[in-house]
Structure formats: structure tokens, C-alpha cells
Amino acid sequence: MLEALKEAKKAQAKDEVPIGAIVACGNQIVARAHNLTETLNDPTAHAEMQAITAASAYLNGKYLNDCTLYVTLEPCPMCAGALYWSQIGKLIYGAKDPKRGYSLLSNTLLHPKTEVTSGIMANEAAVLIKSFFKTKR
After folding, report:
1. pLDDT, tens digit, for every residue of 26-62?
2. pTM for this one?
3. How far apart are CA 87 and CA 13, in angstroms?
């Protein structure tokens, strides 16, 4: 999660919502990403989407069932859907997203075999996001 937080700080430095993601397979990080929605002018350029794309390209395959996604914030429904289709093996996230997190709609948006762990370094992730939005208001 420390590496995902580093990615979130990169996003913050670009005036992006500070969310970072890492995909690891075994003991190797195969993808690093952060939000790029403002940079790319693309509402789908969330950290998770960028990480899935990068990991799939690196591994030369669309299924990530042997991989773990670490992300600083609970994925939104769009990202949860992409995680479903990638068949991600494990999802580990930091802070809950009480307004837009996938679990608000349904816990069945992820693949049934995906293992989920939440709350890892949640405070650190939440502080980054809250401080970002505080400067915007």
C-alpha cells in the first residue's frame, strides 16, 4: 500500500484527485498508476483502470487472477466492473468511499473469486484525499 500511496502523491502533484494503484503478481510490481482524469481529459482514467491496462499489457493477457490490486480508495462501480472482467485475484484498498464506492451498490460487482481486504492504511489515504478537496473548496 505504501507504493500505491506514492502513486497517489504523484497524482496530487499533477492536481489530480490523489488516488494511486499498484498491481502485484507474486512479489513483483507489474503496474503502477494514479488518476489521470484531468491530464487526459478522460473520466475513465481512474488509477485502477490505468493499473489494469498497464498490468494486462505487461503480462500480455487480460486476466489478472494471480495478481493483487492495491488501491488507496475503494473502487467506484466502473472500476469494480473492470476488476470483475480482469478476474483480479485480490483487491486490497485503503479508505472507504462513502459517496461513490462500489459497495454502495452491490458487493457482487467484483468477480466471485476475488478476495477483498479493506482499511489498509485507510487513514493515510483519507487524509490525502480530504486535504486535496479542502484546497478545492
Report:
1. 999 999 999 999 999 999 999 999 999 999 999 999 9
2. 0.94
3. 31
Cell numbers 492504511 label which residue? Answer: 121
104 vs 16: CA distance, rounded Å:
24
Spatial neighbors of 82 by CB under 8 A, at least 6 apart, are 48, 49, 52
Closest alpha carbon to 120 in 74, 61, 77: 74
Sheet of 67-73, strand order:
28-34, 20-25, 67-73, 90-95, 115-118
| CB under 8 A, 24+ apart: contacts of 36-45 | 36/11, 38/14, 39/14, 44/78
Instruction: State pLDDT tens for residues 84-120.
Output: 999 999 999 999 999 999 998 877 799 999 999 999 9
- Chain length of the chain: 137
Beta strands in 1-66 (DSSP E): 20-25, 28-34
Query: Which positions are annotated as active-site residues?
Result: 48
Grid cell 476475488 in the structure block, residue: 114
